[in-house]
Specification:
single chain, 781 residues, alpha+beta, Immunoglobulin-like, Jelly Rolls, 3 domains, 17-stranded antiparallel beta sheet, nine-stranded mixed beta sheet, 14 helices, binds fe (ii) ion
Length: 781
């Protein structure tokens, strides 16, 4: 079977119609992303925009609370007048999803006459979606755009193994009757023999203890001569390294599955020599590919396929790739990977040097729709600190949840939590559904069913928006919720009288950035620290710092952060933890750092040690208030807590709120001495003294041991949020709340409530205590 076409993966009519339908469904929205995400005043920020109208305006604002609702603080974005509103031309931008490798290898580099040329491309392959990808999945390609030269192989959209070569008549394609089994390793050899006009494939399945190796072979003689020597360099797992962005939606051409031991042999007359041999087990933490042949033709990866995954020869004798001498020579490519959306920059701005640290956004408006493109300004680290208080934006949590699609029950991985009646379909969700090219989160599986291990902010992240409503909770979450802390701090300390830094900053600068401050305040959901960040928190506490942990599910997953590509984080969901998928054995060690992934609890760095609390449960539906513990009222050290808004007498805290109706909800944490909470920590209040949670709340699996009963809100003593307090030996102290939704109650009635009051009491007490401790300050600087 031979057919001719002009070029590459030309979509058939059905796919073109689907693409057009997707474009219509997307509506005429405007979206964009800023890069870098975290900067200092005076730095340059580049903004990439997709706009379906001829022009749009951009203006800069400092972000504050955004939710428009009864009982919520009024929206408060401050215009930055030193940056005038500017109009730019609009253009749509769509990313071609999918990871691939680019290798600067040209067959023309060898002296063999083209007419004598024959070559063999061989590798192990483990297809994970050999039939239903909906597009061509390329194993490799050197095909020229004009179809005049080159060679390629792909699984076509119908699942047929296809070879393609370039010729004077354009691209020639041949389908060969080779069957590839899903999730099975097969050694493939593709032969392209120009003198004999023959293309061939041999496939040998991997032998196992129950199955002998099975071989298939097929070949075809083409009616026309073909030309192997191409001006196009080699691309692995996609059709080309070009055309990454388009004005209309475009299909991925990436392979779904693993490739191992990629090699090209040149066959000329009696001489056969290996001219490319990529050893994917080398340089695993990087995007670099090493050619171990004499050609030394090293390549690069794009869109971050998964490395540190098991290869064809993995035998479970070693589960840690850093210790293995074999078994980790594979790379897992996916057709929905996106590490860098690669949109063209629409405008860039050198930020005024006088901007205070904080949450900022470019308001882009095309007359029909508006988006706010967020970014963060850290303080000038070359200057001595002027503020004692710092708020830490959990940007790694924003990155981990970026564009999560767990609401979509048609996906392999999704959630349907009791108490969640329906999916709240806000504007951001509708755009997300219309834009698969924005990619997936660390909570989603890839199209081939494997779990995601990397996420990036070098793309539009729709749930990192000031007006974002979570699809399950029906209220702000992540950035949109954390902006309520900004309103609170503006009110309590005044704008400019506290600093804002991010997870990215602590990951990069370590303890030195935290040690600039006396009081550190967490965001509502600081789930993803790196090892270096935990060290920084330890150092901060050891130096007498005061810490306010005002969230839930804190410091939970082992996280890797790529300092060379700071937009990228890596998380490996291992054998326990509140997770929607688990990675297979052998995939639990991070490619970036070689660390064991999973829970910090499994690594012996429980969050309890720094914030007194550890995650225990989560749920949707109605939340729960806290009840003050009688002993806490008797404790003279805690006297400062119970002042104002009826705290002197009222034992119930937070029986109201803007998310789930109470201060404890979403993901929640409790005190547990056996898990590392310091022995001097005390419970100020607990949800168990205020009715507790319903059975919509269930214990995390790492909390459940035999007998596996009494695991729900009404039946388990462990399902609860605790307010905790402890002092450190170096003169500091820690206050922890153990609930993502604490902030939703803090902001209720414009911060006029007992949750805001007790939080303010802690903040001002810490400010007062830290000013009295000059000894500690001397130690800090
Ligand atoms: Fe979480």
């Amino acid at each position: 079977m031979t057919a001719m076409s002009s070029m590459g993966p030309t979509p058939p009519a059905a796919a073109a119609a689907a693409a057009a339908a997707a474009k219509v469904a997307a509506g005429r929205h405007i979206v964009g992303y800023a890069d870098p995400l975290v900067v200092s005043a005076g730095d340059r920020v580049c903004v990439q925009v997709s706009c379906q109208r001829p022009r749009y305006t951009s203006s800069l604002v400092r972000l504050g609370p955004s939710m428009e609702a009864k009982d919520a603080p009024p929206p408060d974005h401050q215009a930055i007048s030193s940056v005038p509103e500017t109009t730019y031309p609009g253009r749509p931008q769509f990313t071609r999803l999918g990871s691939f490798a680019s290798v600067p290898w040209f067959v023309g580099a060898y002296s063999t006459p083209a007419s004598d040329l024959a070559l063999a491309v061989s590798f192990w392959a483990r297809p994970d979606l050999p039939e239903r990808a909906g597009h061509d999945q390329f194993f490799f390609s050197t095909l020229q755009r004009d179809g005049g030269a080159g060679f390629a192989s792909f699984i076509d959209r119908d699942g047929a193994l296809t070879l393609a070569v370039g010729s004077e008549r354009g691209r020639l394609t041949t389908q060969l009757p080779i069957t590839l089994k899903r999730h099975s390793w097969t050694f493939l050899t593709f032969t392209f023999n120009a003198p004999s006009r023959t293309v061939a494939v041999s496939a040998r399945s991997k032998e196992s203890h129950v199955d002998s190796a099975h071989s298939q072979h097929a070949s075809h003689v083409l009616t026309h001569p073909f030309v192997l020597s191409s001006s196009q360099s080699l691309t692995i797992a996609s059709h080309s390294s070009q055309d990454r962005v388009s004005a209309v939606p475009v299909d991925s051409t990436s392979f779904n599955g693993r490739i191992d031991s990629f090699r090209i042999d040149l066959v000329a007359a009696a001489d056969t020599r290996t001219v490319l041999h990529l050893d994917f087990s080398k340089d695993i933490p990087t995007d670099h590919l090493r050619d171990i042949s004499d050609s030394a033709c090293h390549g690069s990866l794009f869109n971050c396929p998964a490395r540190a995954v098991t290869g064809h020869d993995w035998d479970a004798s070693e589960t840690d790739w850093t210790r293995a001498s074999y078994g980790y020579g594979a790379i897992h490519f996916h057709d929905d990977d996106v590490d860098d959306a690669a949109w063209a920059t629409d405008f860039e701005l050198v930020l005024p040097k006088d901007l205070a640290s904080g949450f900022y956004g470019f308001v882009i408006n095309d007359g029909e729709s508006e988006d706010i493109v967020p970014f963060f300004i850290r303080p000038d680290l070359t200057q001595p600190p002027t503020n004692k208080v710092v708020f830490i934006v959990p940007t790694f949590t924003y990155t981990a949840y970026a564009n999560d699609r767990m609401y979509d029950t048609s996906r392999d991985v999704h959630i349907d939590i009791p108490g969640s009646d329906s999916v709240h379909r806000g504007r951001h969700l509708r755009i997300l559904e219309a834009r698969p090219d924005l990619g997936i989160s660390l909570y989603d599986s890839h199209n081939d069913g494997s779990g995601a291990t990397h996420s990036s902010t070098k793309r539009v992240v729709l749930n990192m928006r000031p007006d974002y409503f979570h699809w399950g909770f029906g209220g702000p979450r992540e950035l949109s919720a954390d902006l309520w802390f900004i309103g609170f701090l503006d009110r309590e300390l005044g704008p400019g009288n506290y600093d804002v830094i991010t997870d990215h900053d602590i990951s990069c600068y370590g303890s030195s950035i935290l040690l600039r401050y006396s009081i550190a305040i967490s965001g509502s959901h600081p789930e993803y620290p790196t090892y270096k960040m935990l060290d920084a928190y330890d150092a901060f506490l050891a130096a007498g710092g005061f810490f306010m942990y005002l969230g839930g599910n804190g410091y939970y997953w082992v996280t890797g952060h790529d300092h060379e590509r700071p937009h990228r984080i890596e998380v490996r969901r291992a054998d326990q933890g509140c997770r929607v998928f688990g990675l297979p054995p052998g995939h639990w060690f991070l490619a970036l750092t070689g660390e064991q992934g999973g829970l910090w609890r499994s690594r012996g760095r429980n969050p309890n040690r720094i914030c007194g609390l550890g995650s225990d449960a989560c749920g949707m539906g109605q939340g729960a208030p806290y009840g003050i513990v009688p002993e806490a009222r008797q404790n003279p050290k805690l006297e400062f807590l119970f002042k104002g808004h009826g705290l002197e007498k009222n034992d119930i805290i937070g029986d109201f709120g803007l998310v789930q109706g109470a201060a404890s909800g979403d993901e929640i944490d409790r005190l547990d001495y056996s898990l590392g909470t310091p022995e001097n920590a005390v419970i100020i209040a607990t949800t168990k003294l205020a009715g507790g949670h319903s059975d919509n709340y269930a214990l995390f699996n790492e909390e459940i041991l035999f007998p596996m009963v009494n695991t729900l809100g009404t039946t388990s003593d462990k399902v609860r949020s605790d307010l905790v307090y402890f002092e450190t030996g170096s003169g500091g102290a820690v206050f922890g709340v153990g609930s993502i939704n604490w902030v939703g109650s803090l902001a209720w009635k414009n911060y006029e409530n007992n949750v805001a009051q007790i939080t303010a009491n802690v903040l001002h007490e810490f400010v007062k205590s830290s000013s009295m401790d000059e000894k500690r300050d001397a130690k800090r600087y």
